[in-house]
Amino acid sequence: MGWLDVFAFIPMWTWLIILTVVLLYLYGTQGHNVLAKLGIPGPKPSLFLGNILQLEKLGTVLQLAEWKKQFGAVFGLYFGRQPVIVVHDLDILKEVLVKDFPHFTDRAINVSRAYVEKGVFFQGGVNWKRIRNIITPTFSSGKLKLMIEPINQCSGLLSNNLATKAKKGETVDVKHYFGVYTMDVIARTAFGLNTDSQNNPDEPFVDNARKLFATAKFASTANLLSLIFPFLRPLLKALEVGIFPSGPVQFFVRTIKAMIEQRKTEDEATRSQRTDFLELLLKAESEEGSDTHVANGTHTKVIKRLTLEEIIGQAFLFFIAGYETTASTLQFLSYHLVKNPEVQEKLVKEIETHVFNREPTYDEINKLTYMEQVIFETLRHCPPVITVNRKASTDVDIKGVHIPKDAMVMIPIYMIQHDPENYENPEEFRPERFDAATRKESNPVTFLPFGYGPRLCIGMRLALLETKIALVHVLRRVRFAKCSETPDKLNFKNGGILATKDPIKVAVELVPK
After folding, report:
1. How many domains are there within the chain?
2. Is 158 exposed, middle or buried (0-12, 13-18, 19+ CB in 10 A)?
3. Structure pTM?
């Protein structure tokens, strides 16, 4: 009996199964040799998933550290079928973030939600540049000065609440207290709302903001499917399944829309009294200042404005960027003050010297140089976001590394800021790393919590202002101290946002009058 006779006896359904398995295998491994062909080393990818399971099993930070030891400063991996080039080399990163920025303007993030994707953080190319240019003036020094008063009021309430806990001798979950503080600040500075989240923790704004960072399993699964089966992305977009759960997104979109409609019915006198972020965006929408575009000898007036969707997108982004990251920074900072009481006392003396018991002004806040060093060292040690990425819009060669079009360049912020080649004894908490003389001599790409280059975080100065004013008010009333529940070492969850497995609890002690 020949081979043809053997094949004839195999049922058709068996052949279909074999064919299906072969096709799935070919699909699941397609593209997994792209980086190897370019001479970029890296771990072996798994069928369909690439290297996602390895990152999940050990944790992003630990696994990237292991691979760096094994493969060097530049190596490749795969998110599903997406090729990712992890770059620790500072010279290459400077090219990606600055010199070759026109080829790396976009981020490889699948938001898949209307309005949310209109935020400047998620936009790319021409749209990113246009929106960035329009909203940049809303973060000028003059605009920030208008926000000092509401931030002072929120900070005063925070210090009162912590002082109350100190009088009772109770420990505090610092993330909770700083979380409701940042929510109050966002509500006031972004929308002119007095939410009093600190005394009403179940306030809808706070509740929905927390839920934004507790992404539903369905959404996580859907994003994984989009990596494995890119052809599903239009369907996921149509279903509005993305990195943020639908309930909180819909709540904020409805709320922001209602605010906009209400303001459009207000008289000019009332509107002129508003100085919050939403009002500035609305004015940007209707601004008559324009550019002149010349085409075929004809001058065309191009009005700079934001669409309604773009306004909502920026307002929503304000929540995302302002709530979690600033609360996390204050949480980690308070922990480091507990672990380093001499730093805490030096901070207190600087506050007494430049502010004393007054409401801090914008100019006084800028004199707190040691406080800024403490904040920066906290951000170096515990960056709220541990990695960011850029997507190549074309083939690019940098320092002998070929980055193909559509490949993702991963920037491992946490690892760069903990690399002993960049910072001596990186696990030590030493604010002096960021004094003026040291910073002048250091490579700016070693410090990336706000990014670097044209896509530097647009809200950086507001975040620093909010953090500094909170510290001024709090440290005039209480001191952070160790308690039995304060961890000796922080243990982090796996994920793109740096979060501890257990709440950070500390004692607060009243300052003697």
Report:
1. 1
2. buried
3. 0.89
